[in-house]
Amino acid sequence: MGMIEQLVDAARAGVETRSAETPVESLREQLPSRGEGRPFREALTRPGLSLIAEFKRRSPSAGEIRAGVTVADMVGAYEAGGAAALSVLTDERHFGGGLEDLRAAREASELPILQKDFVVDGYQLYEAAVTGADAVLLIVAALGDHELAALYAETEALDLDCIVEVHDEPELERALAAGAEVIGINNRNLDDFTVDVDTTRRLITDVPAGRAVVAESGISDRTTLEDLDEIGVDAVLIGEALMRAEDPEAKVRELTADEESTREHFI
């Protein structure tokens, strides 16, 4: 079984367990009290290259990334450094995260938040909405065409922004067919975990005008950001390089070249 299949199976098992404890009807009842949404997509499409700073505890390829750090400390540093938005990885089995990390980030920061997980069921979208996410991730490799279209429509119904993640040309075609407005191009091969930033350079040429593009994985220096900005990338999602940085706030400032933050959206 490949890694993506393992991740999907774990996600489905998690949904089964949690939905037995908290039925989806209970989540629906909580929607009216979810609070004001934050403009995630707008944060990506402002002038210049936006940085989505990710909180990630561990990964299958890297193991534990940064022991003992709190969500509040990291997202506070990201916000102070000028990140445009946050990403919080909530997969428990393979990445050590959880919905409690999403709640903590919501309480500690005013930036819009992407919940990054392996979404395979509409139940997870309701969880995201009531826990504090402003956007979610749909991974084309993890979903059939019908599932992708149905889940994407559900994000719109729940007023959640959505990054639709692709790894190659056929997946990009499927994402566009589903109506995706924000395309995430993941430079990491989910089968062998190799990373090639040229994936973004190759695929972006097939993204129609008017769609936002987010480059993911393998980005850790300002030169790469400048190259991606020149080819039309709207935002980059960076996790491990920030989580491992001795001074995460300074690392964010270095990567953004101290560009103006998007916090004006909330003033």
Question: Can you offer a commentary on this structure?
Answer:
The structure is a single chain. The strands form 2 sheets. The chain has an 8-stranded parallel barrel, surrounded by 7 helices. It has a two-stranded antiparallel sheet with strand order 2-3. Strand 4, helix 5 (99-108) and strand 5 (113-116) form a beta-alpha-beta unit. The protein has a single domain, classed as TIM Barrel, CATH 3.20.20. It is built from 12 helices and 10 strands. The longest helix has 19 residues, at 3-21. It is 42% helix and 16% strand. The chain has helices at 3-21, 24-30, 40-44, 71-81, 99-108, 122-131, 145-157, 169-177, 198-203, 222-230, 240-243, 248-256; strands spanning 50-55, 58-59, 63-64, 85-89, 113-116, 135-139, 161-166, 182-186, 212-216, 235-238. The chain is α/β, with parallel strands linked by helices and 267 residues long. The model is unreliable at 259-267 (pLDDT under 50).
